Amino acid sequence: MQLDNKLDNRLDNQLENQQRLDKWLWAARFFKTRPLAAQAISGGKVHLNGERVKPSRNIKAGDQLQITRGQFEFKIIVEALNKHRRPAAEAQALYTEDEQSMQKRKELAQSLKILNANMPHSEKRPSKKQRRQIVKFKRVED
Hints:
This protein is an alpha+beta fold. It has 6 helices and 7 strands; from the N terminus they run H-E-H-H-E-E-E-E-E-H-E-H-H. A 5-stranded antiparallel sheet has the order 3-2-5-6-7. Helix 2 (21-27) crosses helix 3 (34-42).
């Protein structure tokens, strides 16, 4: 009986120090919902210690994660676990991000901002006359 209690206590301690990857990504606010986190993990957008894993994989403090969201890539180290989704300030305390990763993201964001600034965009929808001109122009090319 005592052996069973010791084994149960040991298992409880191990489970407290581990958490599902999809739940941690959701709690750390990398994804809005757990299904989105699970979908990203299954799609190969999240790597744990350099390996592709499943959403149910348990993580612990000290693990390295590489997360790709759109064009941005995060390289982080898990510092703490949190079972519940907390405010953003608390969620940022759950991990530390690599300096190179942060710098790359800032440079990419800046280049995308410059690229989008040079792209033409209209303030409103085309009028009926403009739509007719667009259709006429497209038909001439065909």
